[in-house]
Structures are given as structure tokens and as C-alpha cells.
């Protein structure tokens, strides 16, 4: 399983929180690349919903990672 920023960004609009099956269903219905569906299939399924993409890919960049200060503009 590998994530890239491009692949993970396909899940930004997913209905969070969501279970593994719900995420796979969302990815399939929204036309996500096969790699996204394969990555989701490799996730552990303990029955608990994932709260956000950060729980799936711990290194997912957030706004703070880009060091952009919106207050300056």
C-alpha cells in the first residue's frame, strides 16, 4: 500500500467519518483511480470508522505544512 498526495486527495470529499467499506464504495462511485481502491482494500478493518484521511495516511499534509499565513494577505 502506498499513498501519494494525488491519490490521497481523491478522498478529501469522502463522507468522513467512514468505515473501510464506505470508503471503498465512495471511491468506486466517484471514479477514483484503481490504486486508491486497492490501498483502501489493504486497510485494517476493525469495524471502527476512520475520522479523516490523516488516520489512513499519517503523513497527509495539512494547511500548516505549507507554511502559508493567510492573515498576511
Descriptive account of the structure:
The protein has helices at 5-9, 20-29, 34-41, 53-56. It is mostly helical. Helix 2 packs antiparallel against helix 3. The longest helix is centred in the middle third of the chain and has 10 residues, at 20-29. It is globular, with a radius of gyration of 13 Å. The termini are far apart. The relative contact order is 0.22. The model has no long low-confidence stretch (mean pLDDT 86).
Brief synopsis:
With 73 residues, this protein is mainly α.
Distance between the termini: 39 Å
Q: Which runs of at least 5 residues are low in confidence (pLDDT < 50)?
A: none
Largest sheet at a glance? Answer: none
Q: How does the helix and strand content classify structurally?
A: mainly alpha
Mean pLDDT, rounded to whole units? 86
Instruction: Please report which band the strand proportion falls in: under 5%, 5-15%, 15-25%, 25-35%, 35-45% or over 45%.
Output: under 5%
**How many helix segments?**
4
Give me the strand/helix succession.
HHHH
Bulk shape: globular
Tell me roughly what share of residues is in helical segments.
25-40%
Rg computed from alpha carbons, rounded to a whole number of angstroms = 13 Å
Number of strands: 0
Amino acid at each position: 500500500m502506498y499513498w501519494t498526495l494525488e491519490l490521497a486527495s481523491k478522498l478529501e470529499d469522502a463522507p468522513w467519518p467512514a468505515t473501510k467499506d464506505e470508503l471503498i464504495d465512495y471511491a468506486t462511485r466517484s471514479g477514483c483511480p484503481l490504486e486508491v481502491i486497492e490501498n483502501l482494500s489493504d486497510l485494517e478493518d476493525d469495524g471502527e470508522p476512520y475520522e479523516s484521511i490523516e488516520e489512513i495516511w499519517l503523513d497527509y499534509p495539512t494547511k500548516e505544512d505549507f507554511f502559508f499565513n493567510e492573515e498576511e494577505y
